[in-house]
Protein 1
Amino acid sequence: MNAVRVPGSPCPCCGHVMNGCTGLTGAVEPKPGDLSICIRCAAPLKFGPELELERLTLEDLAQLPQDVVGVIVRARSAVIRANNSRGLH
Protein backbone atom coordinates (compact mmCIF):
# COMPACT_ATOMS: atom_id res chain seq x y z
CA MET A 1 0.00 0.00 0.00
CA ASN A 2 1.17 3.50 -0.73
CA ALA A 3 1.33 5.91 2.18
CA VAL A 4 0.02 9.45 2.09
CA ARG A 5 2.37 12.01 3.63
CA VAL A 6 0.97 14.01 6.52
CA PRO A 7 2.63 16.61 8.77
CA GLY A 8 4.89 14.77 11.21
CA SER A 9 3.07 14.38 14.51
CA PRO A 10 4.09 12.45 17.63
CA CYS A 11 1.82 9.81 19.07
CA PRO A 12 0.43 11.32 22.29
CA CYS A 13 0.86 7.94 23.97
CA CYS A 14 4.41 6.85 23.06
CA GLY A 15 5.96 9.82 21.23
CA HIS A 16 6.67 7.95 17.99
CA VAL A 17 6.54 10.53 15.17
CA MET A 18 4.37 9.49 12.25
CA ASN A 19 4.42 11.35 8.95
CA GLY A 20 2.48 8.99 6.71
CA CYS A 21 -0.71 6.96 6.73
CA THR A 22 -2.68 4.52 4.66
CA GLY A 23 -6.39 3.86 4.62
CA LEU A 24 -7.96 0.44 4.95
CA THR A 25 -8.44 0.36 1.20
CA GLY A 26 -5.25 2.15 0.16
CA ALA A 27 -3.86 5.67 0.15
CA VAL A 28 -6.45 8.13 1.43
CA GLU A 29 -5.91 11.75 2.46
CA PRO A 30 -6.92 12.01 6.13
CA LYS A 31 -9.27 14.71 7.39
CA PRO A 32 -9.70 16.11 10.89
CA GLY A 33 -11.67 13.59 12.94
CA ASP A 34 -10.50 10.55 10.97
CA LEU A 35 -9.25 7.65 13.04
CA SER A 36 -5.78 6.13 13.10
CA ILE A 37 -3.63 3.64 15.00
CA CYS A 38 -0.07 4.27 16.17
CA ILE A 39 2.22 1.94 14.24
CA ARG A 40 4.53 1.71 17.28
CA CYS A 41 2.28 1.33 20.36
CA ALA A 42 -1.08 0.55 18.68
CA ALA A 43 -2.86 3.38 20.50
CA PRO A 44 -6.18 4.37 18.94
CA LEU A 45 -5.87 7.94 17.66
CA LYS A 46 -7.74 10.58 15.71
CA PHE A 47 -6.53 13.40 13.51
CA GLY A 48 -6.98 16.86 15.02
CA PRO A 49 -7.82 20.13 13.21
CA GLU A 50 -4.27 20.50 11.81
CA LEU A 51 -3.89 16.73 11.25
CA GLU A 52 -1.98 16.42 14.53
CA LEU A 53 -2.53 13.11 16.30
CA GLU A 54 -4.80 13.10 19.35
CA ARG A 55 -5.75 10.35 21.79
CA LEU A 56 -9.04 8.65 21.07
CA THR A 57 -10.86 8.98 24.39
CA LEU A 58 -13.25 6.51 25.98
CA GLU A 59 -16.02 8.99 25.20
CA ASP A 60 -14.95 9.00 21.53
CA LEU A 61 -14.95 5.19 21.46
CA ALA A 62 -18.39 5.03 23.11
CA GLN A 63 -19.84 7.14 20.29
CA LEU A 64 -18.47 4.96 17.48
CA PRO A 65 -20.56 2.28 15.77
CA GLN A 66 -19.66 -1.23 16.96
CA ASP A 67 -18.37 -2.26 13.53
CA VAL A 68 -15.86 0.63 13.64
CA VAL A 69 -14.76 -0.38 17.14
CA GLY A 70 -14.23 -3.90 15.77
CA VAL A 71 -11.99 -2.53 13.01
CA ILE A 72 -9.96 -0.61 15.62
CA VAL A 73 -9.55 -3.74 17.75
CA ARG A 74 -8.43 -5.82 14.76
CA ALA A 75 -6.02 -3.12 13.56
CA ARG A 76 -4.49 -2.78 17.04
CA SER A 77 -4.06 -6.55 17.23
CA ALA A 78 -2.34 -6.60 13.83
CA VAL A 79 0.10 -3.84 14.86
CA ILE A 80 0.89 -5.60 18.15
CA ARG A 81 1.47 -8.93 16.40
CA ALA A 82 3.69 -7.32 13.74
CA ASN A 83 5.73 -5.45 16.36
CA ASN A 84 6.10 -8.58 18.50
CA SER A 85 7.35 -10.55 15.50
CA ARG A 86 9.98 -7.85 14.89
CA GLY A 87 11.01 -7.77 18.54
CA LEU A 88 9.47 -4.32 19.11
CA HIS A 89 7.51 -4.07 22.35
Protein 2
Amino acid sequence: MDVGPLVGDLAVGGISGWCAGYFIKKVAKVVAFILGGYTMSLYLLARQGIITIHGDKLESLFSSFLSRSSSIVTTIGLIGAGAVPGFYIGWRSG
Protein backbone atom coordinates (compact mmCIF):
# COMPACT_ATOMS: atom_id res chain seq x y z
CA MET A 1 0.00 0.00 0.00
CA ASP A 2 1.42 3.35 -1.05
CA VAL A 3 1.01 5.90 1.73
CA GLY A 4 2.55 8.81 -0.20
CA PRO A 5 -0.73 10.31 -1.43
CA LEU A 6 -2.28 9.89 2.02
CA VAL A 7 0.55 11.79 3.68
CA GLY A 8 0.33 14.50 1.03
CA ASP A 9 -3.42 14.93 1.55
CA LEU A 10 -2.97 15.12 5.32
CA ALA A 11 -0.15 17.67 4.94
CA VAL A 12 -2.18 19.87 2.60
CA GLY A 13 -5.13 19.68 4.97
CA GLY A 14 -2.93 20.47 7.96
CA ILE A 15 -1.32 23.50 6.34
CA SER A 16 -4.58 24.87 5.01
CA GLY A 17 -6.24 24.22 8.37
CA TRP A 18 -3.48 26.12 10.18
CA CYS A 19 -3.84 29.08 7.81
CA ALA A 20 -7.61 29.09 8.22
CA GLY A 21 -7.41 28.85 12.02
CA TYR A 22 -4.87 31.66 12.28
CA PHE A 23 -6.82 33.95 9.95
CA ILE A 24 -10.23 33.22 11.49
CA LYS A 25 -8.94 33.92 15.01
CA LYS A 26 -7.55 37.30 13.92
CA VAL A 27 -10.83 38.21 12.20
CA ALA A 28 -12.86 36.94 15.17
CA LYS A 29 -10.98 39.25 17.54
CA VAL A 30 -11.80 42.29 15.41
CA VAL A 31 -15.44 41.24 15.00
CA ALA A 32 -15.79 40.61 18.74
CA PHE A 33 -14.37 44.06 19.51
CA ILE A 34 -16.79 45.75 17.08
CA LEU A 35 -19.82 43.76 18.27
CA GLY A 36 -18.92 44.41 21.90
CA GLY A 37 -18.73 48.15 21.31
CA TYR A 38 -22.01 48.08 19.40
CA THR A 39 -23.74 46.09 22.14
CA MET A 40 -22.42 48.38 24.86
CA SER A 41 -23.66 51.43 22.96
CA LEU A 42 -27.12 49.86 22.53
CA TYR A 43 -27.38 49.11 26.25
CA LEU A 44 -26.18 52.60 27.10
CA LEU A 45 -28.88 54.09 24.87
CA ALA A 46 -31.49 51.75 26.39
CA ARG A 47 -30.44 52.71 29.89
CA GLN A 48 -30.83 56.39 29.06
CA GLY A 49 -34.32 55.69 27.67
CA ILE A 50 -33.51 56.63 24.08
CA ILE A 51 -34.26 53.17 22.64
CA THR A 52 -36.14 50.06 23.79
CA ILE A 53 -34.65 46.55 23.53
CA HIS A 54 -37.14 43.66 23.18
CA GLY A 55 -35.39 40.68 24.77
CA ASP A 56 -38.02 38.13 23.74
CA LYS A 57 -37.54 38.96 20.06
CA LEU A 58 -33.75 38.71 20.40
CA GLU A 59 -34.08 35.33 22.11
CA SER A 60 -36.30 33.92 19.36
CA LEU A 61 -33.91 35.24 16.70
CA PHE A 62 -30.88 33.58 18.28
CA SER A 63 -32.66 30.30 19.01
CA SER A 64 -33.80 29.96 15.39
CA PHE A 65 -30.26 30.73 14.20
CA LEU A 66 -28.76 28.09 16.51
CA SER A 67 -31.28 25.45 15.48
CA ARG A 68 -30.51 26.03 11.79
CA SER A 69 -26.74 26.07 12.26
CA SER A 70 -26.73 22.88 14.35
CA SER A 71 -28.54 20.93 11.61
CA ILE A 72 -25.70 21.40 9.09
CA VAL A 73 -23.88 18.14 8.44
CA THR A 74 -20.50 17.97 6.71
CA THR A 75 -18.35 15.06 5.61
CA ILE A 76 -14.66 14.98 6.40
CA GLY A 77 -12.23 13.35 3.96
CA LEU A 78 -8.48 12.96 4.26
CA ILE A 79 -7.84 16.63 3.65
CA GLY A 80 -10.45 17.49 6.27
CA ALA A 81 -8.87 15.04 8.71
CA GLY A 82 -5.61 16.95 8.41
CA ALA A 83 -7.34 20.32 8.46
CA VAL A 84 -8.99 19.83 11.85
CA PRO A 85 -5.77 19.54 13.88
CA GLY A 86 -4.14 22.15 11.64
CA PHE A 87 -7.04 24.52 12.34
CA TYR A 88 -6.64 23.95 16.07
CA ILE A 89 -2.89 24.64 15.95
CA GLY A 90 -3.46 27.76 13.85
CA TRP A 91 -6.16 28.97 16.24
CA ARG A 92 -3.83 28.45 19.22
CA SER A 93 -0.89 30.23 17.55
CA GLY A 94 -3.01 33.19 16.40
Protein 3
Amino acid sequence: MNTNKNYKNSKNVKNNTNTFIVEIVELLNELTGKKFKPTTDSTEKSLNARLNDYSVEEIKATIRKMCKKWKGTQYEEFLRPSTLFAPTNFENYYNMEEIEDGEDKLELTRMAGIEVL
Protein backbone atom coordinates (compact mmCIF):
# COMPACT_ATOMS: atom_id res chain seq x y z
CA MET A 1 0.00 0.00 0.00
CA ASN A 2 1.44 3.32 -1.04
CA THR A 3 0.54 5.83 1.65
CA ASN A 4 1.95 8.72 -0.38
CA LYS A 5 -0.51 7.95 -3.16
CA ASN A 6 -3.41 7.73 -0.68
CA TYR A 7 -2.37 11.02 0.88
CA LYS A 8 -2.13 12.63 -2.55
CA ASN A 9 -5.60 11.31 -3.50
CA SER A 10 -7.11 12.56 -0.23
CA LYS A 11 -5.46 15.93 -0.84
CA ASN A 12 -7.02 16.07 -4.34
CA VAL A 13 -10.46 15.28 -2.89
CA LYS A 14 -10.03 18.04 -0.30
CA ASN A 15 -8.91 20.52 -2.98
CA ASN A 16 -11.91 19.62 -5.16
CA THR A 17 -14.24 20.00 -2.19
CA ASN A 18 -12.71 23.39 -1.36
CA THR A 19 -13.19 24.44 -4.99
CA PHE A 20 -16.86 23.43 -4.79
CA ILE A 21 -17.32 25.34 -1.53
CA VAL A 22 -15.77 28.46 -3.04
CA GLU A 23 -18.00 28.09 -6.12
CA ILE A 24 -21.14 27.72 -3.97
CA VAL A 25 -20.33 30.63 -1.65
CA GLU A 26 -19.44 32.84 -4.62
CA LEU A 27 -22.89 32.18 -6.09
CA LEU A 28 -24.55 33.03 -2.78
CA ASN A 29 -22.53 36.26 -2.58
CA GLU A 30 -23.37 37.16 -6.17
CA LEU A 31 -27.10 36.65 -5.64
CA THR A 32 -27.28 38.37 -2.25
CA GLY A 33 -24.68 41.11 -2.65
CA LYS A 34 -22.98 39.84 0.54
CA LYS A 35 -19.36 38.90 1.22
CA PHE A 36 -19.55 35.53 2.97
CA LYS A 37 -16.22 33.72 3.25
CA PRO A 38 -15.93 30.14 2.04
CA THR A 39 -13.14 29.53 4.57
CA THR A 40 -15.21 30.06 7.72
CA ASP A 41 -15.19 26.85 9.80
CA SER A 42 -18.97 26.67 10.14
CA THR A 43 -19.54 27.29 6.42
CA GLU A 44 -16.94 24.69 5.45
CA LYS A 45 -18.36 22.08 7.82
CA SER A 46 -21.96 22.71 6.76
CA LEU A 47 -21.18 22.59 3.05
CA ASN A 48 -18.94 19.52 3.38
CA ALA A 49 -21.85 17.75 5.04
CA ARG A 50 -24.32 18.88 2.35
CA LEU A 51 -21.88 17.76 -0.37
CA ASN A 52 -22.10 14.24 1.04
CA ASP A 53 -25.80 14.11 0.11
CA TYR A 54 -26.29 16.66 -2.68
CA SER A 55 -24.44 17.62 -5.85
CA VAL A 56 -22.94 21.06 -6.36
CA GLU A 57 -25.65 21.79 -8.92
CA GLU A 58 -28.42 20.76 -6.50
CA ILE A 59 -26.99 23.07 -3.83
CA LYS A 60 -26.67 25.94 -6.30
CA ALA A 61 -30.23 25.39 -7.57
CA THR A 62 -31.48 25.50 -3.98
CA ILE A 63 -29.63 28.78 -3.36
CA ARG A 64 -31.20 30.26 -6.50
CA LYS A 65 -34.65 29.03 -5.43
CA MET A 66 -34.36 30.52 -1.94
CA CYS A 67 -33.03 33.81 -3.27
CA LYS A 68 -35.99 33.98 -5.63
CA LYS A 69 -38.37 33.27 -2.74
CA TRP A 70 -36.82 35.51 -0.10
CA LYS A 71 -35.19 38.48 -1.88
CA GLY A 72 -37.28 41.54 -1.23
CA THR A 73 -39.10 39.96 1.73
CA GLN A 74 -38.63 40.05 5.49
CA TYR A 75 -36.73 36.75 5.14
CA GLU A 76 -33.98 38.19 2.94
CA GLU A 77 -31.64 38.55 5.92
CA PHE A 78 -31.72 34.75 6.31
CA LEU A 79 -30.04 34.20 2.95
CA ARG A 80 -26.83 33.25 4.73
CA PRO A 81 -24.78 30.07 5.09
CA SER A 82 -25.80 29.35 8.70
CA THR A 83 -29.48 29.25 7.72
CA LEU A 84 -29.32 27.84 4.20
CA PHE A 85 -26.88 25.01 4.85
CA ALA A 86 -28.13 23.88 8.27
CA PRO A 87 -28.97 20.14 8.01
CA THR A 88 -32.72 20.25 8.59
CA ASN A 89 -33.21 23.54 6.78
CA PHE A 90 -31.38 22.56 3.62
CA GLU A 91 -33.41 19.42 3.05
CA ASN A 92 -36.62 21.44 3.44
CA TYR A 93 -35.39 24.16 1.10
CA TYR A 94 -34.23 21.59 -1.45
CA ASN A 95 -37.69 20.01 -1.48
CA MET A 96 -39.67 23.27 -1.68
CA GLU A 97 -41.55 23.95 -4.86
CA GLU A 98 -40.35 26.65 -7.20
CA ILE A 99 -42.46 29.78 -7.07
CA GLU A 100 -44.09 31.16 -10.15
CA ASP A 101 -44.05 34.86 -10.91
CA GLY A 102 -46.80 36.57 -8.95
CA GLU A 103 -47.07 33.93 -6.20
CA ASP A 104 -46.91 35.08 -2.60
CA LYS A 105 -43.35 34.33 -1.44
CA LEU A 106 -44.08 34.64 2.27
CA GLU A 107 -47.16 32.43 2.13
CA LEU A 108 -45.24 29.66 0.35
CA THR A 109 -42.54 29.76 3.02
CA ARG A 110 -45.10 29.60 5.83
CA MET A 111 -46.98 26.73 4.13
CA ALA A 112 -43.74 24.75 3.90
CA GLY A 113 -43.29 25.08 7.67
CA ILE A 114 -39.77 26.44 7.28
CA GLU A 115 -38.00 27.42 10.48
CA VAL A 116 -35.76 30.42 9.88
CA LEU A 117 -32.73 30.62 12.15
Protein 4
Amino acid sequence: MRAAHLCWKYASPTPLVAGVTATSGGVLFTGDLNKDFLALDAKTGDVLYRFNTGAAMAGGVVTYQLAGTQYVAAASGATTYFWGTQLTSARVTIFALPSPGAD
Protein backbone atom coordinates (compact mmCIF):
# COMPACT_ATOMS: atom_id res chain seq x y z
CA MET A 1 0.00 0.00 0.00
CA ARG A 2 1.28 3.47 -0.91
CA ALA A 3 1.45 6.13 1.76
CA ALA A 4 -0.96 9.03 1.42
CA HIS A 5 0.44 12.50 0.91
CA LEU A 6 -1.01 15.97 1.27
CA CYS A 7 -1.96 17.46 -2.11
CA TRP A 8 -3.04 20.95 -1.03
CA LYS A 9 -4.55 22.99 1.81
CA TYR A 10 -7.26 25.62 1.78
CA ALA A 11 -6.87 28.35 4.42
CA SER A 12 -10.21 29.78 5.53
CA PRO A 13 -10.51 32.73 7.90
CA THR A 14 -13.34 30.85 9.69
CA PRO A 15 -13.93 27.15 10.37
CA LEU A 16 -15.24 25.01 7.53
CA VAL A 17 -18.09 23.11 9.19
CA ALA A 18 -20.29 22.62 6.11
CA GLY A 19 -20.30 19.29 4.38
CA VAL A 20 -17.92 18.79 1.45
CA THR A 21 -19.30 17.29 -1.76
CA ALA A 22 -16.86 15.87 -4.31
CA THR A 23 -17.80 15.39 -7.95
CA SER A 24 -16.49 13.21 -10.75
CA GLY A 25 -15.76 16.44 -12.66
CA GLY A 26 -12.97 17.39 -10.23
CA VAL A 27 -14.88 20.04 -8.28
CA LEU A 28 -15.42 20.17 -4.50
CA PHE A 29 -18.36 22.13 -3.08
CA THR A 30 -18.45 23.43 0.51
CA GLY A 31 -18.99 26.63 2.46
CA ASP A 32 -17.65 28.64 5.37
CA LEU A 33 -18.95 30.58 8.33
CA ASN A 34 -18.30 33.83 6.40
CA LYS A 35 -21.51 33.03 4.49
CA ASP A 36 -19.61 31.93 1.37
CA PHE A 37 -20.48 28.95 -0.81
CA LEU A 38 -17.26 27.70 -2.41
CA ALA A 39 -16.40 25.64 -5.47
CA LEU A 40 -12.81 24.37 -5.30
CA ASP A 41 -10.63 22.64 -7.87
CA ALA A 42 -10.09 19.13 -6.45
CA LYS A 43 -6.55 18.87 -7.88
CA THR A 44 -5.19 22.28 -6.86
CA GLY A 45 -7.50 23.64 -4.14
CA ASP A 46 -7.96 26.85 -6.14
CA VAL A 47 -11.26 28.67 -5.58
CA LEU A 48 -13.23 28.40 -8.81
CA TYR A 49 -16.34 30.20 -7.58
CA ARG A 50 -17.43 32.05 -4.41
CA PHE A 51 -20.96 33.21 -3.62
CA ASN A 52 -22.19 34.94 -0.46
CA THR A 53 -25.36 33.11 0.61
CA GLY A 54 -26.31 35.71 3.22
CA ALA A 55 -25.95 33.26 6.11
CA ALA A 56 -23.21 31.07 7.60
CA MET A 57 -22.67 27.78 5.78
CA ALA A 58 -22.85 24.94 8.29
CA GLY A 59 -25.09 22.47 6.47
CA GLY A 60 -24.81 20.12 3.58
CA VAL A 61 -24.17 20.55 -0.12
CA VAL A 62 -25.81 18.20 -2.62
CA THR A 63 -25.76 17.93 -6.39
CA TYR A 64 -28.46 16.45 -8.59
CA GLN A 65 -29.64 16.36 -12.19
CA LEU A 66 -33.11 17.25 -13.42
CA ALA A 67 -34.22 17.32 -17.06
CA GLY A 68 -30.61 17.27 -18.28
CA THR A 69 -29.43 20.18 -16.09
CA GLN A 70 -27.01 19.69 -13.19
CA TYR A 71 -27.81 21.58 -9.96
CA VAL A 72 -25.97 22.23 -6.71
CA ALA A 73 -27.99 22.99 -3.57
CA ALA A 74 -26.34 24.45 -0.45
CA ALA A 75 -27.90 24.82 3.01
CA SER A 76 -27.00 27.85 5.13
CA GLY A 77 -28.24 29.71 8.21
CA ALA A 78 -29.61 28.36 11.49
CA THR A 79 -26.12 27.85 12.99
CA THR A 80 -25.49 27.85 16.74
CA TYR A 81 -23.96 30.52 18.98
CA PHE A 82 -21.03 28.15 19.52
CA TRP A 83 -19.45 29.33 16.23
CA GLY A 84 -20.02 33.02 17.03
CA THR A 85 -22.26 33.50 13.99
CA GLN A 86 -25.47 35.47 13.81
CA LEU A 87 -28.54 33.24 14.02
CA THR A 88 -30.54 33.56 10.81
CA SER A 89 -33.33 31.66 9.15
CA ALA A 90 -32.30 28.47 7.41
CA ARG A 91 -32.16 28.72 3.64
CA VAL A 92 -31.23 26.67 0.61
CA THR A 93 -29.44 28.27 -2.35
CA ILE A 94 -29.61 26.38 -5.65
CA PHE A 95 -27.22 26.86 -8.58
CA ALA A 96 -27.78 25.56 -12.10
CA LEU A 97 -24.48 24.52 -13.65
CA PRO A 98 -23.64 25.31 -17.27
CA SER A 99 -23.85 22.43 -19.74
CA PRO A 100 -20.53 20.81 -20.70
CA GLY A 101 -18.96 22.72 -23.56
CA ALA A 102 -21.03 25.86 -22.93
CA ASP A 103 -19.08 29.13 -22.75
